[in-house]
């Protein structure tokens, strides 16, 4: 079976890769190098480093550079919700941006922008309410991580 490497996914895929990377870290409490995480996810190490940098900025994980470097969860996996990751990566912003940008500065477009804006706010809140119910620990439980 040939592995397909994911190199530059849109934000929804970035969210999925981030969740999977955090599961790898939850299962391996020592520092995980980006190359190892990328291998597990069949992705590129540079992409993983970009995602991990955002999560480190939000204090979800800690990063260490150098030969003994890598990433480690800063918080227990039980306390990291999917909403934390969603917000750290600002996935919701980019998901709805296109919808708002589709309206123009003509009379109908301005009205639609107001309607879309209210709808986007409601959609984000509903999504966050659901994502707050799930944690990295919940996702990691029962998963066996093996190298091929």
UniProtKB/TrEMBL annotation:
Lineage, top-rank taxon, reads Bacteria
Protein name according to UniProt: Rrf2 family transcriptional regulator
């Amino acid at each position: 079976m040939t592995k397909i490497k994911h190199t530059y996914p849109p934000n929804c895929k970035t969210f999925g890769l981030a969740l999977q990377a955090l599961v790898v870290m939850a299962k391996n409490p020592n520092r995980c190098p980006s190359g190892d995480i990328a291998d597990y996810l069949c992705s590129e190490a540079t992409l993983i480093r970009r995602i991990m940098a955002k999560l480190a900025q939000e204090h979800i994980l800690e990063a260490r550079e150098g030969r003994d470097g890598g990433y480690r969860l800063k918080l227990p996996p039980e306390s990291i919700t999917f909403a934390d990751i969603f917000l750290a990566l600002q996935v919701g912003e980019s998901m709805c941006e296109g919808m708002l940008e589709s309206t123009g500065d003509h009379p109908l477009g301005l009205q639609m922008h107001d309607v879309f804006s209210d709808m986007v706010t409601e959609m984000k809140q509903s999504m966050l309410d659901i994502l707050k119910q799930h944690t990295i620990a919940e996702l990691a439980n029962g998963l066996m991580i093996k190298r091929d």
